[in-house]
Amino acid sequence: MGRRRKAHIVEEVSIVDVVEKGKAVGKTADGKVYFVDGGVPGDVVDVLVTKKKKSYYVGRAIHFREYSKDRVEAFCTHFGACGGCKWQHIAYEAQLRHKQSIVENALVRIGKVAPETIYPILGAPETTFYRNKLEFSASNKRWLSKEELSDESISNGQDVLGFHAPGTYDKVVDVEKCFLQAEPSNTIRNKVRALLKAKELPFYDIKAKEGFLRNFMVRLTSIGELMLVFSFGKKDDALIKDFLEEIRTTFPEVTSLHYCINTKMNDTILDLDIITYHGKGYVEEKLGDIRYKIGPKSFFQTNSSQGKNLYDVVVDFAALNGTENVYDLYTGTGSIALYLANHCRQVVGIEEIADAIKDANFNASMNGIDNAVFYAGDVKDVLGEGFRQKHGKPDLVITDPPRAGMHPKAIELLLALEAPRIVYVSCKPSTQARDIELLSDKYKVTKVQPVDMFPHTFHIENVALLELK
Ligand SMILES: C[S@@+](CC[C@H](N)C(=O)[O-])C[C@H]1O[C@@H](n2cnc3c(N)ncnc32)[C@H](O)[C@@H]1O
Q1: Domain spans in the chain, listed from the N-terminal domain onward
Q2: Which of 21, 188, 199, 346 has the most neighbouring CB atoms within 10 Å?
Q3: pLDDT digits (tens, 9 = 90+) for 47-89
Q4: CATH says 93-127+303-468 is which class?
Q5: For residue 2, what pLDDT band results from cuts at 50, 70 and 90?
Q6: What is the model's pLDDT at position 80?
């Protein structure tokens, strides 16, 4: 029998900061650095070290010697188990402070820039029930807490519906009430669970890839439209019809009901055929004066009220006078492009998902906008010299890439365009800062506005205005 290793516990670690992925940073008197799960800046803790790296340690807080004044009681019973709102134990004002410093540090350390003006982060007006979209997973394996794991009378072989526990792909936290999405989201999820049980439909076995319901998505817009998209693990037309009919009659407020069959290894539905079972096939959302069609596969800002505030920052930084030619890179369903269209001469959007471009064109005509054109394709392939000749040199480029940021080739093409101004919208400050550094030969950063789209999480949106030197 191998000998048990002695636990490596470090005493009196002062938590001094948090970093982009939400991990707390601690230091000991001898200057060693610890990334600590469960810490809040201001805490003094003892840390159980789980990993040792060259220049730092990783671990979790197992004993609190002092509590930070920024600590608050988490309001959700699933806090800790569910990966959703990891910062619920930090006062909202302090969350904002930390997000602000994460943005500033990224710009200085990674971007190597000192922006002329960094505005204080725009806090969200609603800090609960702010998401318009949530996805739930069904599983026949319930995630168990540490206490439950040591109780032999509790098995994880339970049928559950909720969110994947962080770090596990096959175990799901059974969610009773989630504070992220307004009603009827909780009622629908709980009813779906009850329905599956009443009809004895097997909850999905993620390892064996078997079962009836796999996941489903709820999208609820601020004008009261409601979309449900169910993803089934097996094509069984009779069972699916019976189930969807029950959902349709129980929730007459659903305006667009969809399903797909997913027998793949992964959960994404973007590459699957989505069938409309009932309703118009999409929902509409309204930001400012613009109405948007959102299909089952479309990307759309998940916090509508803060999404509008974000777009208002873009309008403000864009400072358009009506004569400009604007490019909107990574345009999705044309959301920013259409929001700006009435402020400029022409706007040209690029997006790689062809369905989103169809929605963008639909959105333009639905809003009576005739100065917006959209192209389906990868920015790094589309944005060449031919594109510039066809659409004219841009006076302003909006870029809003996914978390990974822009491809180096897309950055090169952007540099070659030499647009006088770029408004860079980002959901990941570190990749934005990396791209800003790549652009810094020709551009300086003049204004920065962080926006909190996701209260109680460590996610940050940031808008930067870059001007040609
Ligand atoms: C953060 S979203 C921004 C969408 C839009 N600006 C908005 O506010 O709703 C990023 C978008 O970029 C698209 N995308 C990702 N990689 C791309 C690429 N290489 N070329 C073009 N579009 C891409 C995604 O499909 C997604 O719609």
Answers
A1: 9-71, 93-127+303-468, 133-286
A2: 188
A3: 999 999 999 999 999 999 999 999 999 999 999 888 889 999 9
A4: alpha beta
A5: low
A6: 85
Ligand 1 atom showing the smallest separation from residue 379 Cα: 20
Evaluate whether 93-127+303-468 and 133-286 have a shared fold.
no
Closest ligand 1 atom number to CA of residue 311: 8
Q: Is 286 left (phi over 0), alpha (psi -120 to 50) or beta?
A: beta
Give the architecture-level CATH label for domain 9-71.
Beta Barrel (2.40)
Residues with C-beta less than 6 Å from any ligand 1 atom: 299-301, 330-332, 335-336, 350-353, 356, 378-379, 400-402, 427
Question: What is the token pair recorded at 74?
Answer: 């988490």
Given 82, 85, 178, 427, which residue is catalytic? 427
Contact of 360 with 375, CB cutoff 8 Å? no
pLDDT at 3: 60
Å from CA of 238 to ligand 1 middle: 37
Question: Atom 2, ligand 1: which residue's CA is nearest?
Answer: 402
Distance 168 CA to ligand 1 centre (A): 27
Centroid of ligand 1 to alpha carbon of 424 (angstroms):
13
Told to judge if 427 belongs to the known catalytic residues of this protein, a careful annotator would answer yes
- Judged against a pLDDT cut of 90, whether residue 167 lies above it is answered with no
What is 133-286's CATH number, 3.30.70.2760, 2.40.50.1070, 3.40.30.10, 3.40.50.300?
A: 2.40.50.1070
CA 268 / ligand 1 centre spacing (Å): 16
- Residue to mutate, 330, 382, 403, 424, ligand 1, most ligand atoms under 8 Å from C-beta: 330
| pLDDT single digits (tens) 248-259 | 999 999 999 999
The answer, yes or no, to whether residue 204 has pLDDT greater than 60, is yes
Atom 26 of ligand 1 has which residue's CA nearest to it? Answer: 332
